[in-house]
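Problem 12. The chain below contains 202 residues. Write out its predicted structure in token notation.
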Amino acid sequence: MEQLAKTVVFADLTGSTGLFETAGNVAATQIVTRCTQALGVHLARAGGRVIKYLGDGVLALFDDPVAAVDASARAQDVLRDLPADAGVSATLGVKTGIERGFIIEHDGDCYGDAVNVAARLSDRAQANEILIGESVYKALPAAKRQSCHSLDRLTIKGKAEPLPVWRIDWSRTAETTMTIPLEMYELHTGQRVIQRIDLERL
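Solution.
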């Protein structure tokens, strides 16, 4: 199996558990699906490739770590800019983990230490936080590193030793990037069709 160097992005919604309690299963499922699909489209148009949707999260791969960080910094704007009739609650946010390394793609999924670390960083992140590993930090230009704050070393589940982790100041990073309205992006491309849940059947 071929190993390729990729930047792995795990983006997860926060606040969705409470949404199911307040809005009910059907409405909450519709809202969460709209949000995750919007995040997937956003990551794809920013240069990523969506591997899969994970309930209230998205897993995507990027060739360019800078593009991955910039896209993640705009994720909160994506939710805020959804149409009012989408029913998105102000309590919903996004937390993201990003790591870079060699991965293997197999049978529609991806595997590797970078995948595991990105997932754990997403778990450790708070609402609207972006946590990145050392490989991503080292790949960023000096200007981008100014938006990074070292958290020293964090204990990551499954890792023998604590890992150096940085938090991205996404508000500063987002100021240097541009967002294209979702309606300007074609969901169905010639290379890949982003599958959507049929909400009418829920």
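Discussion. The mean pLDDT is 84. Students who got a different answer should revisit the alignment rule from Section 12.3.
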